[in-house]
Design goal:
The chain is mainly alpha-helical. 56% of the residues lie in helices and 7% in strands. A two-stranded antiparallel sheet has the order 1-2. Strands 3-4 form a two-stranded antiparallel sheet. Strands 5-6 form a two-stranded parallel ribbon.
Length: 347
């Protein structure tokens, strides 16, 4: 699609620009107008009354703004723009339902139906505008180092306290909801290859403190700690499924509840590999300024099935996360993780 010259020359993005990217007033207006129209269409398609449109548009557009979708972009690919929209709708879900059902007295099923429909429509809007902005180019999503300002910020109680509170709240809810699934997985592992059910290993966490990580065992008992590769004969049939779907990571919710990990952050490394990387990769230790995570910026952008030699290309993603970490970025990474895992593309 060709844009008018006044839009193309509005001083907005250039190929290869770094993220997070400040969105110009022109594009911000396009995004918010498109989001408002998409939300209005979603409300009307589920047959809610016209007077529900203003509240829905205000809440959803506000959520888009909070996750950065209309003024700061983290989108590297077209799919990323869709994940921004999905994150915004998830953030708006509770207030939208509260306003519609509790205050407005509107139908429960209709009010709930607005959300997935709005998510689909907003995703299309964001994806289309992303293509209009970039064409075939994409901004960079990595950092060479972490600034002193970011180091002070991630070390402050103002950053760590709310992040820990969110991790604990979501971790508890996720653990309770996923307990039946984890029980089924444990039984499947025990029936195929016996015990132990869990794989435990020492890892390096925040500030280089060591802790024991928990995973569902995906290899034969006593398989050793050598780095696994695709097609590894030590991997069991159940283990292959767990690895493909990333369900082997679920016990790390316990690490999150213990305060050893976060839901989102750089992946924790084994001490022997961390020692090697520390001496060969510049600024490697900066990735330990924050809690390690079950998923992270590197996991949703770098290749899967990495080998130790690939760490040079992974660390810049981790440094990007430390530099720009925020609740909005965590929500974006979480939404992208769920989508990518569902299609077996990442993590």
């Amino acid at each position: 699609m060709t844009l008018p010259a006044w839009v193309q020359t509005s001083g907005f993005d250039s190929p290869g620009t770094r993220l997070p990217e400040r969105v110009s007033a022109v594009w911000s207006s396009f995004l918010l107008l498109g989001d408002a129209l998409a939300t209005a269409v979603a409300v009307l398609l589920v047959a809610l009354p016209v007077h529900a449109v203003p509240a829905a548009c205000l809440l959803v557009c506000g959520a888009v703004w909070l996750v950065g979708g209309a003024h700061v972009s983290y989108a590297v690919t077209t799919r990323d723009a869709m994940y921004h929209a999905a994150a915004a709708v998830i953030l708006a879900a509770v207030p939208v339902l509260f306003v519609f059902i509790v205050i407005g007295g509107l139908g429960v099923l209709q009010s709930i139906a607005v959300l997935p429909l709005a998510m689909i429509l907003l995703s299309g809007v964001h994806a289309g505008i992303h293509v209009m902005r970039y064409g075939g180019s994409a901004p960079q999503a990595t950092n060479d180092s972490v600034s002193p300002r970011a180091k002070r910020r991630v070390a402050s109680l103002g950053f760590r306290t709310p992040k820990r509170a969110v991790d604990a709240a979501i971790g508890i809810a996720a653990f309770v909801l996923l307990s039946p699934l984890m029980l089924v997985i444990a039984i499947a592992i025990a029936r195929e290859s016996g015990v132990p059910i869990f794989f435990t290993q020492e890892r390096v966490g925040r500030d280089r403190h060591r802790f024991t990580i928990l995973k569902f065992r995906t290899m034969q008992p006593n398989a050793g700690s050598a780095w696994a590769a695709p097609g590894d004969e030590r991997i069991t049939r159940v283990g292959a499924f767990l690895r493909r779907t990333s369900l082997d990571e679920l016990p790390q919710l316990i690490n999150v509840l213990r305060g050893e990990m976060s839901l989102v952050g750089p992946r924790p490394e084994m001490p022997e590999y961390a020692h090697r990387f520390r001496s060969t990769i510049p600024h490697y230790d900066d990735r330990t300024l924050v809690d390690p995570g079950i998923t992270g910026w590197a996991q949703v952008h770098a290749e899967r099935n990495l080998a130790p030699g690939d760490m040079n290309s992974v660390v810049p993603y981790d440094l990007f996360y430390v530099e720009h970490t925020s609740m909005a970025l965590d929500l974006f990474v979480a939404v992208k993780t769920l989508a990518e895992v569902a299609f077996h593309r990442a993590v």
